[in-house]
Write a structure and sequence with these properties.
By secondary structure, the protein is an alpha/beta fold. The chain contains 5 helices and 5 strands. It is 43% helix and 21% strand. Strands 2-1-3-4-5 form a 5-stranded parallel beta sheet, with helices on both faces. Strand 3, helix 3 and strand 4 form a beta-alpha-beta unit. The chain is globular and about 35 Å long.
Length: 133
């Protein structure tokens, strides 16, 4: 198992980024590596981080302004070669169809529910690391 996995967290809200960190803990599941966070509050920071590489999973806040996570997800799926899987944070369950439109790999609702979030993140990490192995 790799020693760490890098999770990019995009939100303009520091409280949302903190919810993600707290829900994940050191690792979201026993069978995935410990997580290092790369926090981004702006779209240019997200694009720069993805250009540098090394991101295993992106967590995007659909409620971020001015560039919401749904639009950012669709953009990076179109523009980033071998785009990491995306876990989209949505405002309400009825927005799940928008997560599908954005081509997110998984979606959970805000506020972050720790067990659901950790399970979704761990699943994406398992898939990503299995492909990279």
């Amino acid at each position: 198992m790799r020693p760490t996995a890098t999770v990019l967290v995009y939100s303009d809200d520091a409280n949302t980024r903190e919810q993600v960190r707290l829900a994940t803990g050191r690792r979201p599941a026993a069978d995935v590596p410990q997580v290092e966070f790369l926090e981004c509050a702006t779209l240019p920071a997200v694009l720069d981080a993805l250009d540098r590489g090394g991101v295993d999973v992106c967590v995007l806040d659909g409620e971020t302004v001015p560039a919401g996570g749904m639009g950012v997800c669709r953009q990076i799926k179109d523009e980033v070669f071998r785009c990491p899987p995306v876990l989209l944070l949505i405002g309400r369950p009825q927005d799940a169809w928008l997560a599908t439109w954005s081509r997110a790999d998984a979606a959970v609702t805000l506020p972050v529910e720790p067990v659901d979030f950790a399970n979704a993140l761990a699943s994406l990490l398992r898939d990503r690391l299995a492909v990279g192995a």
